[in-house]
Amino acid sequence: MTAFEALVLGVIEGLTEFLPVSSTGHLTLAAHLLKIPVESDNFAKSFLIVIQLGAILAVLSLYLKRFLRDFEVWKRIVVAFIPTGIIGFGLYRVIKDHILGNDLIVVVALVGVGVVLLLVDRWLQGHQRYDNVDQMPLGRALLIGTFQGLAAIFPGTSRSAATIVGGMLSGLSRRAAAEFSFILAVPTMLAASGYDLYKSANTFPHEGYGLMAIGFVAAFITALLTVRWLLEFVSRNTFVPFAIYRILIGVVYAMFFLR
């Protein structure tokens, strides 16, 4: 991997981590185009996991005051993280060794979750909604956390899409679901990235940390802009454009990389 490739992947991570379009799916597709063998390169797999920290730092900088003051949100984060942690840590080795980089799984998840997002967004219309995460019953955070955990198993699902769908099914408005997805990403991605570094850091090439630093900074800057834009967008619009985009990109992915 070159510095330019690390920069490109970092920008893609920042743009797609919080949009319900699958950052992993886009990164895997970009890796194919850049001729990076993600399926067989353990450093490349770790790179795609760790640069998420840059995007997470962007959310932390935007929501720091809420993290420090809003105990009700923290309670929901803790409850949601329980099923996520059980699934993610329990299946870590299976996911990294056998699932991450699998083109067929990425394509099926891109298209399938796109269809689900369309249906759930339509279902949301006319149903009672919570406009603030604090209003959502605490037990419903378990559902959102379970959706997030399942997204970790299948690359292409999109952690953001899964938690947004779970949030809307739990009664959150589009904006509140997106916001909780951002906030929940912080402990989840910190845990995932930290655990991967602990398990894999001794296998990184000499230049590995420099490449990760480039991807980290690029992801931070682009994620900072993307989060602000998405909250404004979903305040006035539906998730339908993202659902249609997922289906289209999944079809294109299949045409070029499924043989």
From TrEMBL:
One of its GO terms (molecular function) is kinase activity. It is found in: Cell inner membrane; Cell membrane. The keyword Iron does not apply. It holds the Pfam family BacA. Keywords: Antibiotic resistance, Cell inner membrane, Cell membrane, Cell shape, Cell wall biogenesis/degradation, Hydrolase, Kinase, Membrane, Peptidoglycan synthesis, Transferase, Transmembrane, Transmembrane helix. It is a multi-pass membrane protein. GO terms for biological process: cell wall organization; peptidoglycan biosynthetic process; regulation of cell shape; response to antibiotic. InterPro entries: UppP. GO terms for cellular component: plasma membrane. It catalyses: di-trans,octa-cis-undecaprenyl diphosphate + H2O = di-trans,octa-cis-undecaprenyl phosphate + phosphate + H(+). Its EC number is 3.6.1.27. The chain crosses the membrane at residues 43-64, 76-95, 101-120, 177-198, 210-231, 237-258. Belongs to the UppP family. Bacitracin is thought to be involved in the inhibition of peptidoglycan synthesis by sequestering undecaprenyl diphosphate, thereby reducing the pool of lipid carrier available. Catalyzes the dephosphorylation of undecaprenyl diphosphate (UPP). Confers resistance to bacitracin. This is Undecaprenyl-diphosphatase. It comes from Allomeiothermus silvanus (strain ATCC 700542 / DSM 9946 / NBRC 106475 / NCIMB 13440 / VI-R2) (Thermus silvanus).
